[in-house]
Amino acid sequence: MASAQSVGIRWPNVCGGQAQCGVCAVEVLESDMPLPVPSLREQQMLDRLSVKPRHGGTMRLACQLVVPASARVSKPGVRKPAVS
Amino acid sequence: MTDNFSGDTKTHFDPAQPPEQHDAPAIVPRIVLPKDEIPPPRTLVDDASDWVPAVKPIDIKRYTSPEFHQAEIEKMWSRTWQFGVWSGDIPNAGDIYVYRNVGQSVIIVRQRDGSVKAFRNSCLHRGRELCTEKTHQEQLRCPYHAFTWSLEGDLKWIPAQWDFPQIDRAGFSLPEVRVEEWNGFFFINMDKNAPSLHSYLGKMVDQWKDWDWSDRYRSVTVERKLNCNWKAAMDAFIETLHVYSSHPEAALLTPDTATQYDMYPDEPHFSRFHSIVGWASANLSPEPSQQEVLDSYTSVYLPEMFGTPEGDLSEGESAREALRRIAVQVYRDRMGLDVSQMPNSELLDGTEYLIFPHFLIWPSTSNPLVYRFRPGETPDSCLWETSLYLKYEGEQPAPGPIVKLDVGEPMRDIPELGYVGPILQQDCDNLEFIQNGMKASGTGVLEVARYQEARIRHYHETIDRYLAN
Fold first, then answer.
1. Sign of torsion, CA A24 B428 B462 B353?
2. B251 and A82 in contact by Cβ < 8 A?
3. Tens of pLDDT, residues B309-358
4. From CA B94, how far away is CA B446, in angstroms rounded?
5. Which domains does chain B have, with CATH numbers?
6. Would the N or C end of chain B have less CB density within 10 A of its end CB?
7. Is residue B451 within 8 Å of residue B24, measured between CB atoms?
8. Are B248 and A78 within 8 A, CB to CB?
9. Is some CB atom of chain A closer than 8 A to the CB atom of B309?
10. For the structural domain made of A2-74, what CATH number should be given?
11. Gap from A6 CA to chain B (nearest CA, Å)
């Protein structure tokens, strides 16, 4: 989520990256390297998530996930920066 | 991804420090509903009520005490109208539904003339239950010794009749139980002297004239055992105060602390709420943009419901208007239903009625839910049923499956529940820890909100009316 925000992309969330709302959840479709194991805090929120993977990928919290290399993800509601 | 987003890219909200709300927010439905393009049912606006029962703590023993549990059985359940079965589950003559609750067992039987009768589910010979599960029979024959009654309850056959000289055949009919219908739902009452169901429901019957359920069918029922009191389970579904913390993904979408709750001092047997969609929670500060409100729906719920990825606000369009536009399109494209003339209150929002003591029904098309709660053998357990009643066009589909789950089994994996399953799982995550928590209380009471949790006090007061007599 921070990576996206750093290039101006707005990523839906409510809790601002504290693994408390689950709104930032993202489906990871592909990754060049294995993803790190979710922390206890992330896993507990993942267990409560109301969204499921739709493309056969893996659900993760975008606010907690540090992508080791490059990854392809799916997330409805993500928006590019404003065009002035 | 779109190019016309004009909000900033920073995170707004801090759930660790949500704004304290010292003043009651406006009740949002009262603001929003009159502005909707298609007027809502008159009752949602005209019958809005400011009355709430007196504020007082609720004694936890009402949830945990075996004595209170027994008093409910003897004085409340024995005299109230309980939801038995939906009409569509017993459509044909000879269809039989077995309804068990608090030690009572009743069979609800479709008659040859289309009417419905209910009988105590007990053979007059040696007491065996005549039926043990939903079935279809031409007559009511006890499996034990074959005593047989007609569907109408008249005695038909006695084995070795010469050995039962004491039985007067004409008077050996099955004892009937009161059964009456409202809106396609059959309710039973163990009290022969109870008021009629419609009298019991009071002005709710009139309020419901604005909703047509003739085009609904039961698509699924999930029976889930819970290790908590039946009232603790029901409490989780009659207020929206819990939405921000228990269903946080909905916080951008619904004004959880500004729901409209209606109850009336002279109507002890029902209450209701109306919860708006397309307006953010007051727990979020600063207020999110309309595009963010819309995005929360398209990012969380819509993909689960319809596979629709996202939507953009048109020029000057509010999130609620956009949600309506998307919903009308989705219903048309995915389900072949024309909902273009349906008010937002039914298409988007959630209205929920509680029929005392244990039946919750949502008239909304978007949340077509029915819940029923029944006590377990002790105050510490219950059976919670969730059903979906979906709209259909053309021939009525056959009723859906009944899925039975034990304590701890996940709700989220029932495909027929769709997006509702994971939400109900979030509720289970609270309910499985509530009975122990109540018993560990240091105060012995629950402090419920004056307005937002008034429905809890309201039905507790009704319980007290029954227990006092």
1. positive
2. no
3. 457 788 899 999 998 998 888 888 888 889 999 999 999 999 999 999 99
4. 47
5. 28-59+212-467 (3.90.380), 82-193 (2.102.10.10)
6. C
7. yes
8. no
9. yes
10. 3.10.20.30
11. 9
